[in-house]
Design a protein that fits this description.
It is a single chain. With 106 residues, the protein is an all-alpha fold. It has one domain. It is 71% helix and 0% strand. It is built from two helices and no strands. Helix 1 crosses helix 2. The longest helix has 65 residues. The radius of gyration is 38 Å and the shape is rod-shaped.
Amino acid sequence: MTASRNDAVELGWVGWMNRVLVILIVLAVVTAIGLNYLPLIRVNQSLRERVQRKQEEVLKLEGEVRRMETEIRALKGDPRFLERKVRELGYARPDELVVTFKDVTR
């Protein structure tokens, strides 16, 4: 009598142990690969966080540049704005009297 392809050969405990051994080998290989790449994954995560912080810093600095460019245009084109900025620095016209108040609550 010949065995057909659908007939399974029963190996008993040897077959069961063979399957367990294959599973353990696969788990060992996957674990070894994971442990090998774990430091790289951590470095990659750290670099991504650093890039994120730098991108946020760039956005903040770009906003500051836009604000300064706006102020420069106002200083060049608006005499009232220029006068206000000069007065904030403590300057006055020669014929003016500057009065400053000190905070007495401190």
